[in-house]
Amino acid sequence: MAYKILRVNMSDLSHKWEDLPAEYETLAGRALTSTIVSKEVDPMCHPLREFNKIVISPGLLAGTSAPSSGRLSVGGKSPLTGGIKEANAGGITAGKLGCLGIRGVIIEGMPPAGTSDWYSIIIQKDKCEIKKTNEYANMGLYDLITKIWQDYPSKPGIIGCGIAGQRLSPNAGVFGNNVENTDPGRYAGRGGLGGVLGSKRVISVITDDTGGEPPQPKDKEKFEEGRKMFTKALTAHPVTGKLKDDDGNPYGGLSNYGTNVLMNILNEAGGLPTKNFRSGRFENAAKISGEAVHELVDKTKEKFGDAAEGRYGHACHPGCVMMCSNVVPYENTGKHQVGPLEYESAWALGTNLTIGDLHDVAELNRICNDVGLDTIEAGGTLGVLMEAGLIAFGDGKGAIAALKEIYNDNSALGRLCASGATNAGKVLGVSRIPSVKGQSLPAYDPRPIRGIGVTYATTPMGADHTAGYTIAAEILGIKGEVTDPRILEKADLSRTFQATTAFIDATGYCLFIAFCVLDDDNGMAGMAQTINAFLGKEIDIGAYGMAILKAELDFNRRAGFTEKDDRLPEFFLKEPLPPHDVTFDVADDEVDKVYKGV
Amino acid sequence: MAYKILRVNMSDLSHKWEDLPAEYETLAGRALTSTIVSKEVDPMCHPLREFNKIVISPGLLAGTSAPSSGRLSVGGKSPLTGGIKEANAGGITAGKLGCLGIRGVIIEGMPPAGTSDWYSIIIQKDKCEIKKTNEYANMGLYDLITKIWQDYPSKPGIIGCGIAGQRLSPNAGVFGNNVENTDPGRYAGRGGLGGVLGSKRVISVITDDTGGEPPQPKDKEKFEEGRKMFTKALTAHPVTGKLKDDDGNPYGGLSNYGTNVLMNILNEAGGLPTKNFRSGRFENAAKISGEAVHELVDKTKEKFGDAAEGRYGHACHPGCVMMCSNVVPYENTGKHQVGPLEYESAWALGTNLTIGDLHDVAELNRICNDVGLDTIEAGGTLGVLMEAGLIAFGDGKGAIAALKEIYNDNSALGRLCASGATNAGKVLGVSRIPSVKGQSLPAYDPRPIRGIGVTYATTPMGADHTAGYTIAAEILGIKGEVTDPRILEKADLSRTFQATTAFIDATGYCLFIAFCVLDDDNGMAGMAQTINAFLGKEIDIGAYGMAILKAELDFNRRAGFTEKDDRLPEFFLKEPLPPHDVTFDVADDEVDKVYKGV
Predict the structure, then answer these.
(1) Is A231 a domain residue?
(2) Using a CB-CB distance cutoff of 8 angstroms, which residues of chain B are in contact with residue A429?
(3) Is any Cβ of chain B less than 8 angstroms from the Cβ of A476?
(4) How distant is the alpha carbon of residue A324 from its chain centre?
(5) Would B413 be classed as within a structural domain?
(6) Residue B534: inside a domain, yes or no?
(7) Interval B468-526: pLDDT, tens
(8) For residue A445, which of A383, A352, A365, A564 has the smallest C-alpha distance?
(9) Residue B458 and residue B451: Cα distance in Å, rounded?
(10) Integer angstrom CA distances of residue B461 from A422, B470, B472
(11) In this predicted complex, what is the ipTM?
């Protein structure tokens, strides 16, 4: 199969098909987006002007039968951090691009200043059309997906930007659609790449794979063997499997409770950041946990039967065996309120704001999905608005009202809500802004859990748990052993996780496979075998991951980043976090050790 | 005379008097603030938390009989730029501190989080009181100065922060009062140091010099000789003198037209940034020029006689011979609208916004003065709000209404207006933000006038014309000769101006003396003699200035700044400016040459 790169130039609305260069042969997902961004984008360019680019790439195995391998990477220079960005998501576009033999889509240039038209890029087998679609502008994303699926009855993959991105707001994410419904719930959310799409006047990229076929592994037999070994390990693992005990009670972590199984675990550990990182415990954590959603879904199913729309244990893309996704139903009707409600979102829009009402949290998430915002950053932003006294902590209805201001084009409050925690915090004179490189911290306090703090500080992405999820070792344990979260030597742990993650982000595999592959040698072996068999060569996972990180670090350094940007905000170093009453005590030298010499 | 430093600790509301250390003996003004900030403040600290400090220092000669020597420096880590900041102003506090023998006031620490009290620091002869003054909070500054002068009938010097600073807004300046009226018109405006005062819960620093006496020069005779030579040169120079021609018509530039004499000159030169830096010419420039104010003042004087409050040619501090200050009167009453209306303010709030109505511009300036904002940054901020479509370009009434929102504590629009152009622009997704290091560009477009562009890019202060005013050479000419503003080799020119400026900012002399001392050898000799005679030693002006710059550069580098921060925004490099249709073409290497190896 000859893989292609589709290059779209929005300056003159042209496109061309390029053969995948030989040196990119093994690159896909984050490996491809970061390599191209680092090579083609001037690190000093303004992220919202013509010299930035958006690079979209399906993971290496997207479209194949490998389990849970349908992730899509989106890259560019981030308007939020000013550095390189890769954000990835599930959904259905990656598989379809894979089946069309498209390894990457590069969107470059920008229509002339003053252009008021909006465009969509329609990708079909060996065909690309850049279409004026002003009718898609200024719509909520639930409606937009519904409309596009009416316009294209083949139910194509859709990614794009919402109202926030069309206004170039710094916290605009790139949304993606689901396989089964018109939820805009699949977000390559972090870092504001939705605004980069908006700056190029692109509302959506629509991928229809009719006539395509799955990418073919170089060594089909070995691939199939690896795939089976890996699938078996995934489905047998207590976190990633859909398991029941002898009494028929489900206990598979992700499939039953989703990622939000973490809410009670982190609360118990005292590392759940509460009230803009003032405490490690939230009294109402259980009310907005994965267990609470599970219970609500069961209750509404019982009450409303087939009419009930709540669910847990469903897949965000075809071929996922872990099925962590969910839909939160309204209690009184059983109808769909929002899907999914992830741990990070429930934390950001709930715990972080001390909002303990599940439906208020779900409503905030629904608005984020509809206007096109990253939920973590949106929660961080509302947190600094609360810090500044514009909304009261715990006031769910107030937070909903503020977020709804985004629908009003001229609302300064709406713009602030869509601007990210760092930008909003600076405007408001807030000095408790939990962010690194301009990006909000996610749902693990770095004071009691130092390894994740080192990841937040050093990843080229800005604060990001998915960039090197040491929580797996520090809280959840690997092979039954927990790495003490309190020890101060975390550079090696973080670097190893960051490199492995960069590799996984290239493969198309969902990061959650890590729960299995770190625990189970057969899982790791099966996973590696699928990649090697697909490429027909042996990949060194660590070296592959480090090469991605090197390209990213190089970009950031050329953009002016130094070790001084690898620092947590002052208050983490000075204010002890209850209940453990610890500060972030990792020495700067230890933090800098992560990428010293890289 | 034994000079003192007053150190105020706001954490425990204590103070102590320290002897001026021997190594600081020759340091004052910017030399002292930058040395102390660089030495005592952790460059990585959050500017709005307890580890930042405010350092206040009168210039070396403040309080003496040297002409135009009453400038006051205020320093700290800037919330706007994240780097070191020195902002200076006229007014009456510097002279009074000088007469009390106080070379510096250091305000450090911060009351405990949650403190709702506000304080003022009352300085008298050998006495300091930190007084709870909650009654001064949340007042307009016209009223605040009136009230403080009622409370302290000796009419003390006052500096402090207004509503904007009390809310920690990034564009909050440090205001100062005048000798003759209750205008809050003397601003150490740039860089947001008003917010640092606010973070320390200090509303005002009140200086009463009753019982003090002027600082004594080491060599009185030589000082007196130098003072006379310098005064003579200043008063005879066509820019700095208050001159009349043979027919009795005034022609002294500053005394007749104020700094706003520049409006028509820059318009003529095609370097007057118009409509957020879209053109170098503004069709309504003349209407808001110094000449227009002069004419209005004369007209209202004729009409209202002694009741007329408009004026030009008055001094911002006792002993100034240049007298560039003015008061803009209302046309229909002759009463005071705002004073002064400087060139930079008329440009920022007029030309930059294409507002050509003098009274709208004056009203915007009045609001800035009342709430405590730097006018240049406020104009830049309104410019990006217009860029984003929240206000229409040219809509004076709309801009006034937006700025007035600052009086409303809960207004997101008000907060945006007080946040600075870079912060507001980021929130709004604007990619035409004319700023360097987070600080707005002033009133000279760097495309046709390259030297000032090199100063904007490289000064440790963030974009600032006063940091190295090459305009004197490039537009106004020195000794009758103009340095071509278009040539690309400007590193040496800018560095020389920056070093000389740093020296002048230490002396207490107003920067406008440069018009005379660069032109007239006697002026230079007289000025130098006052300094040398005061200190009793020979000062090398260039070396003295470079030492200040070194301390500032060192601070910024330890805060994470690199050469990548010494860059103009992308659009200056890409978009030609009419009427000359040039871009900023100075090579990065030339820009970096300014401080290479320093």
Answers:
(1) no
(2) 48, 79, 167-170, 195, 198-199
(3) no
(4) 14
(5) yes
(6) no
(7) 999 999 999 888 899 999 999 999 999 999 999 999 999 999 999 999 999 999 999 99
(8) A352
(9) 11
(10) 22, 16, 19
(11) 0.96
